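Q: Hi! New to this. If I give you a protein sequence and the SMILES for 2-acetamido-2-deoxy-beta-D-glucopyranose, can you show me the bound structure?
A: Yes, paste them in.
Q: Okay, here:
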Amino acid sequence: MVRNALFSCAAAFLLASAQALEPVYNWGGPNPSNLQLEIYVPRNKAPNPALILALHPCGGSGQQYSHQADYTMEAEQLGFIVAYPTATNDSNCWDNSSPRALKHDGGSDPTILNNMVQYLVGKYNVDKTRIFATGSSSGCMMTNVLLATYPDVFAAGSCYSGVAAGCLIGSPGNSPTTSDRTCANGKINKTGPEWAKIVRDMYPGYTGSYPRMMTFHGTADNLVFPPNLDEQLKEWSALHNVGFTMTAQNQPQPGYTKIVYGDGTKLMGFMAQNVGHTVPVHKELDLMWFGITQGRV
Ligand SMILES: *[C@@H]1O[C@H](CO)[C@@H](O)[C@H](O)[C@H]1NC(C)=O
Ligand SMILES: *[C@@H]1O[C@H](CO)[C@@H](O)[C@H](O)[C@H]1NC(C)=O
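A: Thanks. Here is the predicted structure of the protein with 2-acetamido-2-deoxy-beta-D-glucopyranose bound:
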């Protein structure tokens, strides 16, 4: 029994590791911050696949994040594509702060990431209603920014240990050493309507709805402090016009508290007791939240 389990685990590992990420060079458009892109396209790609854009933390890379947030086995089973881009500037942090980043088609990382997405949509016939973003730390901050600046592109986001879109406005950089620490230290406290205005001002012509958001934070996070969870929840609850409904203890596991807004389909938070930076990726919840697998988070 144990032997069989070990064997199938090893076989699965060999199968997964045989499937390397594939570099992509020609997605088009200016690339001033020199982002890079690697993708995982399963052998069993669906004819009209979903796409997950998975964003690494500061100091990371697409390769690194494909281990931290490894959706490749599920991609193989379910036919979706995963894109693992890499930031190379400012200690490999995403630009979550510059005026060009916090603006639809402003030209910085969100625009470049959207250019990657649009290239993959065309090349692999991606289902435009099933494009998702996820990330950890700086990658979670960028998930917030992407959902704010390209709400018409992304259907949903999932986010580990980041900050609200716009929290880093005015910061001179994006890494722990180059940024203004006020936001990460949890000292920026705005109302939902104030956050919603900041987000709407990033894409003034946009009148549609905003992507669904699920976001996690640890109570013992002393790099990106826990008040940032509440700021994100205020931001997305105002954008979705859904209020706090209830908390559920020990969901999805002991020590985690699920924070439900509205009917739980548009906005969900998770506070992980005594978990530091960052909350581990919960890929089974991500896939459920995205609607790639069945069931409710
Ligand atoms: C690289 O990061 C620094 C902040 O640390 C920023 O001033 C500079 O504009 C960035 N360069 C590009 C090309 O994005
Ligand atoms: C944020 O401000 C509100 C209103 O002034 C206050 O009730 C709340 O306690 C503050 N939250 C934090 C984390 O400082």
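A: The beta strands are 22-24, 36-40, 51-55, 81-86, 131-136, 156-160, 212-218, 244-249, 256-261, 267-272. Let me know if you'd like me to explain how to read the tokens.
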